[in-house]
Amino acid sequence: MRVRKFAAILLVLATALSLAACSGGSSGTTATSAPPSSAPATSAPAEAIQWRLGTTCVDPKANPDWNAWGLTIQKFCDDVNEKAAGRLVITPYYNSVIGGDTELFQAMVNGELEVYYGNGFSTFDPRFAWKGFPFIWDDYEDIRKNLGNPDGELFKINSSIMAEYGVKCLGQGSGMARGLANSAHPVKVPSDMKDLIIRTYEDKVVNSFFGGVSTIAVMPPTEIYTALQTGTITATETSDTVFLMNKYYEQCKYFTLLDWQISLFNFMVNDEIYNKLPADLQEIVWNASWDAVAYENELLDDFRAKAKTAMQEQGVEVYELTEADRAEWVKYARTLDSNLSELIGKDLFDQIMAVLAD
Description:
Helix content: 25-40%
Order of helices and strands: EHEHEHHEEEHEHEHEEHHEHHH
Largest sheet: 6 strands, mixed
Oligomer: single chain
Shape: globular
Radius of gyration: 20 Å
């Protein structure tokens, strides 16, 4: 049963110390489908509506390099603020300043936070795990076709699950592929990981996947660099861009372009709060979110093209899987499907896999 607590929409935080953030920028493309509108158009209010956006991503003003998610958030907020002409103002709070992912998602569900940029995690609802299943995507075009557009079948499925919690899904990017960094030796196939201690986080999919081939150590991202430095861990799964942004290359000289999972973040808003907006402001928010993720996709395409060379310039040995290597990883990943089906429910699992098989 959904519990809702309504916080004052006009609450403004005076200061926020942002240490680091995700990515946003200039122009993009408007979504093909207009959002359903349930609010009548009205004249501009006397005072601006103030919204807060919470995220664990890094502040692009503090760290702009390789920071597609931070720049994406900034673009979304800037576009809404400009196009709403002062009637609606969205202020971003980066780097977990007002909570971690689970706390931010719960606050949005409760109506205490207007916008969340991140992901629904399986710690909140096991069904949210499906976007992180290993080796289910063919390529980024597959994601953009099925999930990263408002007409995609998987976007509709994800939106329907979120709607049960009173959450409206907005723009969905095509994300970042996650590879493997380690300080010991090259990793080509699953058996190469048996001597590694890999940092993971509280997630059943990631722990099941890496727990079957290595020793896992669950810890927050803020502890990764020091843990690598001290030898508490010898590996971490991460995207190439995050690897570069956080300078993990100072501790890890091996990186495998594993692409085992795609980190898929999107903009989400409390639907009660969204539906209270005038229709024209709803449209501005909706379109700005899709423009922002279109920009995110452009940034990440560019970053991916440059990341391998950038890592090699830092003395990192970068390994790209051969077809035979990838086949071994995929074979291993598929041994987990029965557990994944049980985790999210067989009907949902079958539905998702049928869409991806088309």
